[in-house]
Amino acid sequence: MLPLVVILGPTATGKTEVGILLAERWNGEIISADSSAVYRGLDIGSAKPTPEERRRVRFHLIDVADPDEVFTAAKFRDLALQAIAEIQGRGKRVFVVGGTGLYLRVLLHGFSLAPPPADPEVRARWRAEVERVGAPALHERLKQIDPIAAARIHPNDAVRITRAFEVYEMTGVPISQWQQHAENELPALKIGLTLPRALLYQRIDQRVDKMIAQGMLQEVQNLLQKGYNPEQPALKGLGYRHLIGYIQGRVGWDEAVRLWKRDTRRFAKRQITWFRKEPGVQWIDASQGSEKTAAMINTLLMEQGGFDDAQID
Fold first, then answer.
1. Would you say 211 and 45 are in contact if contact means Cβ atoms under 8 Å apart?
2. How many Å is the Cα radius of gyration of the chain?
């Protein structure tokens, strides 16, 4: 099995364009690892590749779910593994490009690593639920989704019970499966794109301004007019929740944009922290632009072996 080439890193570092240049160079196709791009209708805010970019290179795992569908990391892994088999079956290289760390972790490592840290909103919801119905009642419900974990957890252990539900909601995988013996990991060359912090924040601000100019407000209005619940996870993403707050009159326009930019910068910091813990990532400074960044990665790939011009159609 040829190793996957994974292009990862925080938002606004130019991963998509670099991935396209690499896939063009090496006769490849791209699997998107973006938790917003999986949803139909979330186009501008997820920075999906444009129709022109999709004509240059074939993309997978974009527009595979409606905004009101539950789409978990486990679902992503299943679809990604199918796509990998199909791409390699056509004799092409697989490039995985994206910034959703949980998706990449589950794809590359299966469920052999520790489950992800809790999301504050998810944790608060399950703590409220255990207070409402009591730990024993929630333990009975746990038996339905994860009988192995339920057998290990005392019916009055509210902390571990709520943690089990948190993990299941976030990943679609029972916590007991995360705790099983390690599966075989997928071979991958992992390239991380990085930028000086000031430049990264500047690009984030510019990206938000560009999304607004492209019609992000209308995109959000269209989703709401179609009847999608603003409490759906898909509409809790960056930009969407901020503009919904503006549409609902909870914040003014300038404040909504300010919070959007601020929260995107905070999100980028969390991405950096997550990816710094990923083993084996080779980091590339992407501040010189996509062409030079892709050229540096091409050199790196050829130095690693397994890449040569004979592979290119």
1. yes
2. 21
**According to the model, what pLDDT value does residue 310 have?**
43
The torsion defined by the Cα of 238, 84, 59 and 279, in degrees rounded to 10, comes to: 40
Report the pLDDT value the prediction gives residue 180, as an integer from 0 to 100.
Answer: 61
**Integer angstrom CA distances of residue 247 from 47, 226, 241, 242, 261:** 21, 15, 10, 9, 17
Report the alpha-carbon distance of residue 274 to residue 105 in Å, rounded.
10
Domain 120-178 annotated CATH 1.10.10.60: no
Each domain of the chain, given as residue ranges in start order, spans 4-110+183-311, 120-178
H or E, element range at 31 = strand 28-32
The CATH number of 4-110+183-311, from 3.30.200.20, 3.40.50.300, 3.30.450.20, 2.60.120.10, is: 3.40.50.300
Is residue 29 within 8 A of residue 59, CB to CB? The reply is yes
- Residue 263 structure tokens: 């929260």
The full length of the chain comes to: 313
On the question of pLDDT at 134 being above 90, the answer is yes
Which residues partner with 281 through β-bridges?
190
For the entire predicted model, the pTM comes to 0.80
Q: pLDDT of 221-279, one tens digit each?
A: 999 999 999 999 999 999 999 999 999 999 999 999 999 999 999 999 999 999 999 98
